[in-house]
Amino acid sequence: MKTISRRSLLLSGAGAAVASLAPASLASVPRRPWDTVVVGAGVFGAWTAKRLQEAGQSVHLLDAWGPAHSRASSGGESRMIRAGYGADEIYTRMAWDSLPEWRALSERSGLPVFHETGILFFAPRIDDYFRGSIEVHRRLGFPIEVLDGAALRRRFPMIDFAGIEAGLYEPRFGALMARRAVQTLVAEFAFAGGTYQQEAVRPLADAPHRNAILLASGAMIEANAFVFACGPWLGKLFPDLLGRRIFPTRQEVFFFAPDAGDSSYAPGRLPGWADFNGGDIYYGFPDLESRGFKIAHDAHGPRIDPDTGDRTYSAQALADVRAFMARRFPRLADRPLTEARVCQYENSSNGDFLIDRHPVHENAVLVGGGSGHGFKHGPAVGRYAADLVLGRLTTPEPRFSLATKAEQANRAVH
Ligand SMILES: Cc1cc2nc3c(=O)[nH]c(=O)nc-3n(C[C@H](O)[C@H](O)[C@H](O)COP(=O)(O)OP(=O)(O)OC[C@H]3O[C@@H](n4cnc5c(N)ncnc54)[C@H](O)[C@@H]3O)c2cc1C
Q1: Ligand 1 atom closest to Cα of residue 371
Q2: 40 lines ligand 1 (CB under 6 A)
Q3: Is pLDDT of 301 > 60?
Q4: 285 C-alpha vs ligand 1 centroid, how far in Å?
Q5: Cβ neighbours of residue 233 under 8 Å, at least 6 residues apart?
Q6: What atom in ligand 1 is closest to the CA of residue 63?
Q7: Ligand 1 center to residue 72 CA distance, Å?
Q8: pLDDT, tens digit, for every residue of 344-359?
Q9: pLDDT digits (tens, 9 = 90+) for 46-65
Q10: Taking the C-alpha atoms of 306, 308, 313 and 315 in order, what is their torsion angle to the nearest 10 degrees?
Q11: Which of 230, 254, 343 for a ligand 1 pocket mutation test, highest count of atoms within 8 Å of Cβ?
């Protein structure tokens, strides 16, 4: 099994470190039974594997295409981390608890995993969602600034705040470099003695007994416990159980080049932002690492198959973001498109995560339902899932249970 040196991790950055994690041939995978096998090296699987390893377990991590690969939900450039969730304290706390772990990972990594850009939400006026965020933050002692229209216009002159009189600014939060973060984590996991293998796992129902799973190659891997953190593929691995409870939707993301020499959209001047826009949310990031100004529409797109879905951006989505930019970021409205990506949210019915035991195979844990907001919570999700595997979870959160996952989509978490 190929491992990497700490020197290559620190000096070369995560991409090079993971590049050195060549897909293991089966012959090189030790054939011992593992304490836990984690299937899926996205943000949820990677953090779960790390937590189990920290608890002293032998852990084997598998992914069909590689950590944070281009079609994984975790495979994008950047993801927002913020604690504002309206009155939804559970996610506020999880984001807050996760932030120091992302910061620590960023410090260990050769290149930044976290950029403290600040996060700005804005809306015409203070509504219930904003009131809830303010109340929860103040009660928990988390920093949040409430800005009126004049303050918004003064501090962020690159945004046209017409019709906007309320802003919430979280100075300690910002952007996670998603692909780099997951690849760094997996490299660290391997460096610490964990094993990683690039192989697809067959549905659990095909397994010969409760302590085994089958790979696409036909080989068998044995373990005491299994974690399935397969994101938008969960419904394919568990069609009867999750096929109608995980709703992958097509989401489009665009990057634009600012004018030559224009640093108005650089981190430090423009924060990560979301315009609540009467419930039809647009969000984006500054020009992180010179990749371009990023913008996306948060509305759920049509259903997508993560394997076969077309990854070509649509002219309509591009026209929508340009129309939005003409209103809020007028100097960018006609700037060149530099990149577009089609990704998917892996939604649960209401946006709550799924972290629960399989109802029949009680040594298997299902982790997913990130629902377009899961990335930031990776450290907290990994801890919860690991505690479930280890039998340490004293008070399970009902909202993460399989029983609460409906077959009708009705988004409630933003
Ligand atoms: C456009 C977009 C914007 C987003 N913005 C944000 C944001 O700003 N902030 C935020 O917090 N979150 C955001 N999210 C959500 C967040 O990115 C996801 O919730 C999170 O990445 C999901 O991670 P995951 O590990 O569950 O899934 P994934 O990253 O998809 O990982 C699942 C892995 O399982 C593997 N797998 C599947 N089946 C098998 C199999 N049979 N055998 C082996 N391996 C298998 C896959 O190859 C994949 O690598 C966004 C998502 C998208 C798409």
Answers
A1: 19
A2: yes
A3: yes
A4: 19
A5: 40, 64, 306, 307
A6: 44
A7: 5
A8: 999 999 999 999 999 9
A9: 999 999 999 999 999 999 99
A10: -120
A11: 230
